[in-house]
Amino acid sequence: MFRKCITMLLMLSLLLGTSLVSIGQDSEMMEFEITQEMIDASPYLQSVLSRLDEVYDTSEFRKEPPYRIALAAQGTSNAWSALFDAHAYWWVELLGEEVVSELLYGDAQASADVQVPQVEDLLAQEPDALILVPMGAAALSAPVERAMMQGVPVILCASAVETDNFVTEVGTNLFTVGANLAQWLIDTVGADGNFLMMTGIPGVTTSVIMEEGALAVFESAGIELLDNQPGMWSPAEGKKIMETWIAQYGDEIDGIWTGGAQMAQGIISAYEDAGMEIPPIAGGEMQNGFLRSAMEHGFEFYAWMYPNAMITICLDVAIHVLQGEPTPRFIDFVDTMPEARPFTDAEAEDYIRPQWSDDVHGPILMPDEKLAELGFLVEEE
Amino acid sequence: MSLAKTRINPALDANWRLRAFIANYGVYIALLVLLLAAAVLTPKLYAVNTIAVVMRQASQLGIVAIGQTMILLVAGLDLSIGGIFIMTSIVVAEVTNGRDEMVIPAILISLALGALIGAGNGVLVTKRRVPPFVATLGMLVLVKGATQAYTRGVPGGFVPEVLDIVNQSWFVLSIPLLLWLGLNALFIFVLRGTAYGRKVYAVGSNSEAAHLSGIPVDAIRISVYILGSCLAVVSGVVLTGYVGYVDRFIGTGLELDSIAAAIVGGTAFVGGRGGLLGTIAGVLIIQILSTMAILMGLDIEVQFIIKGLVILGAVTLYSVASTEE
Predict the structure, then answer these.
(1) For residue range A105-122, what is the model confidence (pLDDT) as tens digits?
(2) What's the pLDDT at B153?
(3) What residue of B is the nearest CA neighbor of A234?
(4) In chain B, what are the domain boundaries?
(5) Shared domain check, A211 and A166
């Protein structure tokens, strides 16, 4: 078993090496160009781009297994985070006790206020490494610095913090994601189209960065948006706003940019009620409910992925760090999880899973039995 | 008080009349002014489709604001309704699992659970003398925790198709609007035309005096909390049909909006004063402002500031108007 794990880790090292080379290279979907102006205007972009070429010397953290790893997670706040946690426990089980003896878990309830003291509690248990899913870039900066000062290597998973004092970040370039969605919309509809933007929660890093990327592209194309409102990553809020937009703009709307599939579902529902044809939507995800609706209505969409399964990469990276291996300071999950690439409506059938419930965000690495245990499988009629 | 001071001074009398007028009709004038402003700033608000949208969305808030108003009338407050929305959404989806024929049992179960939560709030406030803010906040946390423990963060089941009826509009009429109007008619009658309604006002105005005059103060308060929770269940069912699937964050913010609607509508925070007609106007003001903000493309921060200013303005106005009543 131990040998199996070491082999797995070696494979990971290879993948990480490859990712270091491939990060920053154009994917087939990336059709816009990051300009110096965009970089100057975005501290996030500056941070990500500067870390692309950096490798952290982790020899100071080198330890013999088994390891005690702390996971400060978003918590059981929605299906995405529930599957994130499930992937974490499943992966630790697969690695075996000889590699990870204990996973110390903190449930932040999707709140930075809850997470800050929780990280302190986790650090008090003297873990070998801390994997953090930051609920707020500013709020979590100090706890991250304290952990590093305490000699606990910090691996950021799925989001960023404002400080640069951590080992590495596993995620994706959210600026590019937002920009790609906007670029697809322009390519599909044309630069003379009328566009609407529905972002996530104002102030939340993921939402803010994606919005930054999208606005940069819209602005550089000389597009003036009809409107831009936060849909709070909520289908109800998304639907309320879309209903008002439909009443205001009617069939003038040529395309909609949205920061998540939950809001896309609200948008679809508003169009269903209005009995109107759904315009192209940039911002779907590999979420079964969204895909089911999209296939039913047959509209054009561009989907991106933010896989909850990325925690498996975060755990592998934590082990990699504790083995003292040099670690890239920015690891894009797309490079180690190729199935997490963006896709369009033309490929929808390849991504929908009839056996999954509507709230499952893919890709899922766990076997179906695990999903069934969690209640994510539905009986097919 | 000296005799001289009680003589009617025309200037003071006019002042008093103005204050009374503001206290009684201020919210309706504010609504009228808002509608006039909308005619200039956002004429699209008057399109049939927009009115239908405004009314449908206002109904979701309006139904729960009926209960909140009644609770405020007995000098209470209910923050636990946020948990009731989520609980209702989960029960409807879990019990029906998409089957239309199970909607009635699911609603009855939700109402029973809602009544239990309301009774819990009422007992805590009356028998244990826990301040309403603390009691209902604790209940909110408890209900949210219980639903989370039950679902493990992942609500299952499907929303039955029959609930999609809440999304249909005929001209400006919709099921949620009819429900809101119907419930308002019922509870306006209850508050104004029945002994129970008079007791609600009496308990809120002066619970000591109400107790001495033989009114079962605790029972009235508990019953009002139960009614408020049951109305939150009704609103939760409407919201579940509106969203179309189980959402753990359903109705977020409606508990505070319902308090705001009642306060803007003239219901006093200290109880005993106000009513449902004012709350209807308060709900419409909040909803129209929200829709106008989107129609004008205002940033979310500006929307929050406007909403806050309206609430503060209303409270200040009522406070000034009632100072020398």
Answers:
(1) 999 877 888 899 999 999
(2) 66
(3) B249
(4) 29-323
(5) no
